[in-house]
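Figure caption, in words: inputs first, then the predicted bound structure.
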Amino acid sequence: AQEINEDISEVILSEDDIKGIVSRLGAEISRDYAGKNPLIVAVLRGAFVFTADLLRAITVPCEVDFMAVSSYGDGVKSSGVVRILKDLSTKIEGRDIIIAEDILDSGLTLSYLVDMLRGRGPRSVKVCAFSLKDIPNHTPAIKPDYLGTHVPDEFIVGYGLDYAEHYRNLPYVGILKPEVYSR
Ligand code: PRP
Ligand code: MN
Ligand code: MG
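Bound structure (PRP present):
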């Protein structure tokens, strides 16, 4: 394994932890979707790393497509109003859709996305989230159908998760040192 980035105070999911989580998710999906040819929808940008691994852990025929969204609202992280920056290239009517996300925080973006895709007449829409942030006294707007792991209510990066577009390339998930985002 490589050296830990100097901006990371603590690694919370190692490469091995991640491998174990993703292979379990792949096995669950393979069991549930045999013969269904699900379409895995990666939510760019964060989910691209997880989706690439998840696809290779799925052993039944499946397809992949990509969607890029941005939630806006002044300063608030996720307003629940989502702008589509890149739409799917695939027609999803009658399809079984699995949305792949790197992290579920407030869940507002994802719940909007699920409603929007449901409106296109797919056969089913499920959510596979690599991680779910445990926020005290807060219930997320949506519950994932497949969940990799819980993560603490900290500023975490790596494995696709960014701070100002950096750190997505870290192969582990770690807590970003506060001095990095307060400077
Ligand atoms: C992050 C993350 C999830 C979303 C979770 O994406 O990748 O998509 O926020 O937050 P929520 O549950 O509160 O809606 P971000 O908007 O940072 O875009 P990115 O994936 O391009 O980094
Ligand atoms: Mn994202
Ligand atoms: Mg981000």
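The chain is about 25% helix and 30% strand.
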